[in-house]
Structures are given as structure tokens and as C-alpha cells.
Design brief:
Elements: H1 16-19, E1 24-26, H2 28-31, E2 45-47, E3 53-55, E4 61-63, E5 66-67, E6 79-81, E7 83-90, E8 99-104, E9 110-114, E10 121-131, E11 139-146, E12 151-152, E13 156-158, E14 164-172, E15 176-182, E16 192-201, E17 217-218, E18 221-224, E19 231-236, E20 240-242, E21 254-256, E22 258-267, E23 273-280, E24 286-288, E25 292-294, E26 299-308, E27 313-318, E28 332-335, E29 347-351, E30 356-365, E31 370-372, E32 374-379, E33 395-404, E34 420-421, E35 428-432, E36 436-440, H3 442-445, E37 452-460, E38 470-473, E39 480-487, E40 493-500, E41 503-512, E42 519-526, E43 530-534, E44 540-542, E45 552-555, E46 568-576, H4 582-588
Antiparallel strand pairs: 1-46, 2-36, 3-4, 5-17, 6-9, 7-8, 8-16, 9-15, 10-14, 10-16, 11-12, 11-13, 11-15, 18-19, 19-46, 20-35, 21-24, 22-23, 23-33, 25-31, 26-30, 26-33, 27-28, 27-32, 29-30, 34-35, 36-45, 37-42, 37-46, 38-39, 38-45, 39-40, 40-41, 42-43, 43-44
């Protein structure tokens, strides 16, 4: 049963005042967090079983914190030596009874967890620890093991009887395979200490704690416009794979009539020092980040970051006839001083700080199985035949990406020669997992009213197919309330839909959606009383229909959180436990 909180009582005010009466208000673009503005609590369950990048407010590409330790709060799932683990035995730092007790059964007790990392480098291992009173020792050691069995960071730490987060930062020679919490000086059987919130991240500093269960997990990404720095809200994307093996290391790319060198003083799009210069050694240079195996009937989207150096022009083209004829053939050139493309229908550009441009070839369709690549042509003019190379002059190139089953690019996926073999491809590839955001259980029932309500959403997607900014359901499509970005059957209109028992109760078309544009929608529903609007336009209504019984909200994906990913941004998502009036719906979406 939904209970109206004092803050959520309905007001007859309009505009921004209406948001003060909401029962749920996720203002992602403003708060850059999952916290509900109405309750001040984080009600959203969020997972992404991989790392992921986003654009910070400074326009630079950032990497979200990723916890590489599974079962970060469930130490009974870890291996214990000279110890037993009692789960949920103590109040944790977050106020829940989820901290575990470690009890020694012999001297030198420890618990450890196997992890999988892809490379050597900088790692930080952290865990919340609390000492018990009356024990033989309060010394604990954090240890990290690499694949050679080398131990890092075994310095002992004196812990207190208050929760504290302890961490060690190490640089390993091989990939990390084990993290361990050790009590080397414990000598008395029955001594105890408490653990909660373990984390291993590929960083030299500790980041925000990200809980995990059976898979690794990563922080949500709050994205920004790389040119203006505008906050775009929560980024929700489907799983995508970068098929290129070396996205940033141009020394591993293929060259014909061209070469490369590393400029250690250059600043890359992620703010790191160093970027490769690619340059012609004779006329008609040809550079490609790697061959891929095209699968007939599959679309491929290519992107790469380029920046002017001595040369200010770069061209791109597919090298195979087994691709859409409209993107194969003549080279499309981009002016790297202005970002202007000679044919924007083939190569689009997005500006980034420090003179970088992301060049994009969207959705090229393979019509045959073939080995192929996209060629990069550095030059001083729009004609590579006129180049007079001097052995050093060129352009910067960084962050090459090829995505399959894709009609548009997603966030940058870095690769460095490591990854997994993806079926259907001949090269190692790195995959970014899908973003899954939902609210269920008491976190849902605390604000949702079953018989009526209104949902406002502010969102955008680069896709022209039907995707879901939000859907409220019982875990099936049969009983659901949703907004769909675009439905071809009704003229590509945004559609507001209610299904009860798999029977359509309302299907309101509220205007054609232009991909990548910002859309504000409001959908009000009550027995025999539905209304919807987009961007302050005309109200669409339906005066006949019932309301389904539902128990969860998915944000940016379908009714089960497994498909229909928005692949875009949600700036704000708000719910009122009442059917707002039509005038109010128009006002809040203007």
C-alpha cells in the first residue's frame, strides 16, 4: 500500500513546483547520483558487470569505478583458512545488518577471494574492517597476489573498534589473482573481527565502494556533452564489443605508405599523457586499426579520435565491396581544425577538448562474409595524391572502435591486446556489459500507487528503433506501463502504452521522435482516464481502460531489464501518486 509522505502531498502549483509533490524524483542530470530527491535515499539497484567510460564535466573521457571482487559483502563465499565466517552478524557501515564476523579457529586466520584481472599494473584493494574488543591482536594485513604468486602490500594495519575503510595500492608485474584479509598475529582460538565491502579496482587510488554479488560490478555513469560540459544524466547502454585489439596503441595498427611515432607530450582524449602520430611516408597512405571478420547481414559502426598536427585533414573509407555501397568507394575527408566532414551522411564528427574529434561511420551493412577494415588517410589537403611527406608530419589518432550489430556508436571501449575470443570473430575483443537499473520490492512499493499515477521523463537516444526510457511492470510485458521512444507502425511516434493481462488498454502517440534529440514526456493514468504529451505539445487521451498490477520499475531497458536498452541518457524520471491534470502535463514537459 502506498502511503503519501508529507513531502509528496499533491500541490496545485505548476511548473517546477509540481516536482516538490512527487513521490519519486530521480534528477540524474542535477545530482549525478541515483539518490531519490524526495526521500534522500538510493532506491535504485544498478549493475554493469564490466567497466565503462563516460565523459566528465571537463569533456575528458573517464572510466567508472569497477569492483573486480565478487561477493564483496559475502565473506562466507570466500575461502577461509584457520577461520570460520558468520554472515550478517554485525551492523555494517551502511546501517544494514550485512557485515560478516570472522572467528579464528587457529593462529593466523585469513579469508581470501580469487579474482580475474587482464593485465599487470596499478591496483587498489580496500575493505571495511572493525576490530572486536578483548581479542589477542588488532593487527590485520591486506594482501594482493599476482599470477606468479608474488605477494604485494602485506604491510600490517592496526584496526580499531569503529568501522574504517582500509586500503593498499600496489603495482603488480602480472595480473592479480587473489586478494586476502589476514590476521597474522591472532593467536587465540575464538578471536573475532568484522568485514564488509571489499573492493579491488584497477587504479592507484581508492574509489567509491561498489557492491557485488556473483559478478563484478561497476558504478553508474553520469555523462556530459564533451563540447559544452552540460550534464546529460544517467547513461544507459546495451552490451557492446570493441572488435579492435589495440584501440589506442597505433604501433600495432597496419600501415601502407605510412608509419607512426609516440608523442609523449600530447594529451589524449582521456587526459592521459601520450598519443600516437600517424603520418604518410609516400603518396596515398593507408592506415587501419585492424582487420575484422564481417558477418553478412550485420551492421558495423566505426569510430576513431583524431586531432590535427602538421596535417589538418583525415579521410576514412571501408576497404571492401562487401559493405553498403554508399559508404564504400571514395574517401570522406574531415577538416580537423573545424570538424567539417566532406560528406556528413557518411562520416559524422563530435568535438572533444584539446582539438580532438571523434569521427563516426554509422551502421554500415555487410552483404557478405569477408575480412575487412576501415582505412584512415592522413593528409594536408582533401587529396592524398598531393601529399609531400617528410617522414614526420601527420595527425594524431587514438581510440579506434568497431562495434557489430550497431547502427550508431556507444561510449568508448578501450582495448590493449587483451580480452576474450568472441564467437564469430577472429580477434580478441573487449566487451562492455549492459547497464541495468531497476527499483523493486519495498523500494518500489514505498512510492508507487497501483490505481493511478503520473510519470515524467526527460531522455534522449541516438536510435531510431523502439527502445524504452522506462517501463513499470510485473516482470513481463503483459502487465506494464511504459513509454517507447519510437514505433514504426505508428509513424515513428513516441508511444505511451498500458497493457493489462496482455490486453492493450491505452496506446497514445505523442509525436515523431528525432534520434539524438531531447524529449520530455508525461504520462498520466487512472481507470478509464489516460493522457500523455511530449515536449509541451497536444494532449493525447483515452477514456477507456484498466490499470495493471505491477511491482517494479526498469530504467532505460525493457520489462525484464534484458533488452530494449535506451543506449542514451535519462536526465530526470519522476512519479506522482495521482493523475495530474492535462494542463500540468503540458507545463512540466515544456
Amino acid at each position: 500500500m502506498y502511503t503519501l509522505s508529507p513531502k509528496a502531498r499533491f500541490s496545485s502549483s505548476v511548473g517546477n513546483g509540481l516536482f516538490n509533490s512527487a513521490s519519486l524524483d530521480l534528477h540524474f542530470a542535477k545530482t549525478k547520483s541515483l539518490v531519490d530527491a524526495t526521500t534522500g535515499s538510493n532506491l535504485v539497484d544498478f549493475t554493469r558487470a564490466s567497466s565503462g567510460t563516460y565523459v566528465g564535466s571537463d569533456g575528458l573521457i573517464k572510466t567508472a569505478t569497477t569492483n573486480l571482487v565478487t561477493y564483496s559483502q559475502d565473506f562466507d563465499q570466500w575461502s577461509a583458512t584457520n577461520a570460520t565466517v558468520t554472515p550478517n552478524a554485525e551492523l555494517a557501515p551502511d546501517g544494514t545488518t550485512t557485515a560478516d564476523q570472522v572467528t579464528s579457529t587457529a593462529s593466523d586466520p585469513w579469508v581470501q577471494r580469487s579474482v580475474t584481472t587482464a593485465s599487470a599494473g596499478a591496483y587498489t584493494f580496500s575493505v571495511y574492517i572493525k576490530a572486536a574488543t578483548g581479542v589477542s591482536s588488532n593487527v590485520v594485513a591486506l594482501r594482493v597476489f599476482d599470477s606468479d604468486g608474488t605477494i604485494y602490500g602485506s604491510t600490517s594495519i592496526s584496526v580499531t573498534t569503529e568501522w574504517q575503510r582500509y586500503q593498499i595500492s600496489v603495482t603488480t608485474a602480472k595480473p592479480v589473482t587473489i586478494v586476502r584479509v589476514d590476521a597474522p598475529n591472532f593467536a587465540t582460538i575464538g578471536d573475532v573481527f568484522y568485514l564488509w565491502g571489499a573492493q579491488l579496482e584497477q587504479s592507484s587510488t581508492v574509489g567509491e565502494y561498489i557492491p557485488t554479488t556473483s559478478t563484478i560490478n561497476s558504478a553508474p555513469r553520469f555523462d556530459h556533452d564533451p563540447t559544452t560540459g552540460e550534464s546529460l544524466g544517467l547513461l544507459v547502454e546495451e552490451s557492446r564489443t570493441n572488435l579492435y585489439v589495440y584501440s589506442e596503441d597505433a604501433s600495432q595498427w597496419a600501415y601502407t605508405n605510412g608509419s607512426y611515432y609516440l608523442d609523449s607530450a600530447a594529451i589524449a582524449p582521456d587526459g592521459s599523457a601520450g598519443a600516437y602520430v600517424v603520418y604518410p611516408t609516400s603518396n596515398i597512405p593507408r592506415i587501419n586499426p585492424g582487420n575484422i571478420s564481417l558477418v553478412s547481414g550485420t551492421r558495423y559502426t566505426f569510430s576513431v579520435f583524431c586531432k590535427a598536427k602538421e596535417f589538418s585533414t583525415v579521410g576514412c573509407f571501408w576497404n571492401t565491396t562487401s559493405i553498403d555501397p554508399d559508404v564504400y568507394g571514395s574517401t570522406t575527408f574531415v577538416n580537423l581544425n573545424t570538424g567539417v566532414s566532406s560528406d556528413p551522411s557518411i562520416v559524422q564528427t563530435v568535438g572533444y577538448p584539446n582539438g580532438w574529434w571523434r569521427l563516426i561511420i554509422n551502421g554500415a551493412l555487410a552483404d557478405a562474409n569477408a575480412t575487412a577494415h576501415v582505412t584512415i588517410v592522413p593528409g594536408s589537403t582533401g587529396n592524398p595524391n598531393t601529399i609531400v611527406p617528410n617522414g614526420t608530419d601527420g595527425i594524431y589518432a587514438w581510440g579506434a572502435q568497431m562495434e557489430a550489430s550497431a547502427s550508431f556508436p556507444t561510449s568508448y571501449i578501450p582495448t590493449s591486446g587483451s580480452g576474450v575470443i568472441t564467437p564469430g570473430y577472429t580477434s580478441p575483443a573487449v566487451t562492455r556489459a549492459a547497464d541495468v537499473a531497476s527499483i523493486s520490492g519495498s523500494n518500489f512499493s514505498s512510492w508507487y500507487r497501483q490505481d493511478e499515477g503520473t510519470v515524467f521523463s526527460d531522455w534522449s537516444t541516438p536510435s531510431s528503433i523502439e527502445l524504452f526510457p522506462w517501463i513499470i511492470s510485473d516482470g513481463t510485458l503483459n502487465n506494464s506501463i511504459r513509454v517507447s521512444s519510437s514505433v514504426a507502425a505508428i509513424g515513428s511516434n513516441t508511444r505511451l502504452v498500458v497493457l493489462d493481462g496482455n490486453s492493450l488498454q491505452a496506446g497514445l502517440a505523442v509525436g515523431v521522435y528525432t534520434p539524438s534529440s531531447r524529449r520530455k514526456t508525461a504520462f498520466a493514468y487512472k481507470l478509464n482516464n489516460f493522457a500523455g504529451v511530449a515536449d509541451g505539445g497536444s494532449i493525447a487521451t483515452d477514456t477507456s481502460g484498466t490499470i495493471p498490477t505491477v511491482d517494479r520499475l526498469f530504467i532505460g531497458s525493457n520489462w525484464s531489464g534484458s533488452d530494449g536498452f535506451l543506449c542514451g541518457h535519462i536526465r530526470r524520471l519522476t512519479h506522482w501518486p495521482t493523475r495530474l491534470g492535462n494542463e500540468a502535463l503540458q507545463t512540466i514537459t515544456q
